[in-house]
Amino acid sequence: MEDAATRLTIDIIGQVVLDTDLHAQTTENELVNAFRHSITWTPKAGRWNPLVNFNPMRPIMTWWYKRTMDAYLGNVIDARFASQRKLAFEKGGKHVIDLALDEYQAQVAGNSVDMLASAPDQHFKKVVIDNMKTFLFAGHDTTSSMICYVYHLLGLHPEHLARVRQEHDEVFGIDTSKAPGMIKGTPQLLNNLPYTLAVIKETLRIYPSASTLRMGSEDISITHNGKIYATTGFLVWVNNHALSRRADIFPSPDSFMPERFLPNAPIEIPRNAWRPFEKGPRNCIGQELALLESKIIMVMTLRDFNMQTAIEEWEKEYGKSKESGKVDEVYGDKVYQILQSTAKPKEGMPMKVTRAALQT
Asked: Is 284 annotated as a binding residue?
């Protein structure tokens, strides 16, 4: 399921960032392949074997995939620049590439198209390409993993799945084929899904995809058990996984309880305790997009399909992956998270999918 979810979210972020259909779900794409293969060459934390960590092929393959991605994105930027120039740089849509080109045109030429060169300068292209790659990676990663775990948890807890389906029926009607048109025509309907959002938040509490580091400074200290710790010269890491399992903050932390995130929940969650996208001025710029597309994916799939994790069947068929190590369960969970640049479901989340209408 992780591969299917990743290809879906890459297609979504391709439209948002590049206004381009990458066809990741249906065909092979040069950018998508280079992007995904480059991730596999990222060194994995916790490995100390020098033959693995200092693989002489790593810098070569990293360079090759970077070159492939840069060339692909450079061609997209050039083509978009040329088409906008012909249109006298009329304000385009809200795609990231259009916003970048609009700003470039405003800074370089003001209102005069004649002052622009026939192609953007190389420094601008490099900055845009680097940012596009960041958007492509960060824009798909959290959502793809989170969707896998939403399916996993709702498959384990049919009572919560039934409540999500009921909410979708109430907002969009029982004819699931009408939901896409309703979302497109009235996207504000997605704001009327409090339980769906609660499921997303609870999933990210149990399975946070990433965390972040902040540089310490002289004016920042941490107090714990009455002792003050200076942060100067240190990196401060908020361990989301440990924080979200604290029973004093989230009662019954190992239980799937979406209702804890509903408005007027009986036990109030402390401010800043839930932080899968981090907090402050450098929080995740794409968190609203991630939540929005997650809601849409859930509305489009959960009433038509049943998903059940099939890790035991997978292991009987293919054996246990060396990548996952020798541990069978973590917190009683067979599809625990493993590190692949970010936290990913073990074995890619093997899953059995059936039409909901076929279930009795």
From this structure: yes
Q: What is the pLDDT, as a whole number, of residue 56?
A: 83
86 in a structural domain: yes
Long-range own/partner contacts, residues 130-136 (CB < 8 A, 24 or more apart) = 131/96, 131/100, 132/17, 132/18, 132/73, 132/96, 132/97, 133/35, 133/69, 133/73, 135/13, 135/16, 135/17, 135/96, 135/286, 136/10, 136/13, 136/14, 136/17, 136/35
Q: Which residue has the tokens 């305790």?
A: 273
* Tens-place pLDDT, residues 59-72: 899 899 999 999 99
d(CA 299, CA 304): 9
What sign for the dihedral angle of Cα 150, 152, 156, 161?
positive
- What is the DSSP code (8-state) at residue 235? E
**Residue 149 domain-assigned?**
yes
Q: Tell whether the model's pLDDT for residue 92 goes beyond 90.
A: no
Enter the DSSP assignment of 343: E
C-alpha distance from residue 185 to each of 24, 165, 182, 197 (Å): 26, 21, 5, 21
Domain boundaries, position 33? 1-155
Overall domain count for the chain = 1
Any residues with CB less than 8 A from the CB of 122 and at least 6 apart, and which?
A: none
What radius of gyration do the chain's Cα atoms show?
23
Span 339-345, average pLDDT: 79
Is the separation of the CB atoms in 298 and 171 below 8 Å?
Answer: no
Nearest residue to 2 via CA among 161, 154, 141, 144: 144
360 assigned to some structural domain: no
Q: Tell me what pLDDT residue 360 has.
A: 39
Could you tell me the pTM of the whole model? 0.85
Going from the C-alpha of 190 to that of each of 40, 186, 204, the distances in angstroms are 35, 8, 19
Q: Is the pLDDT of residue 321 over 60?
A: no
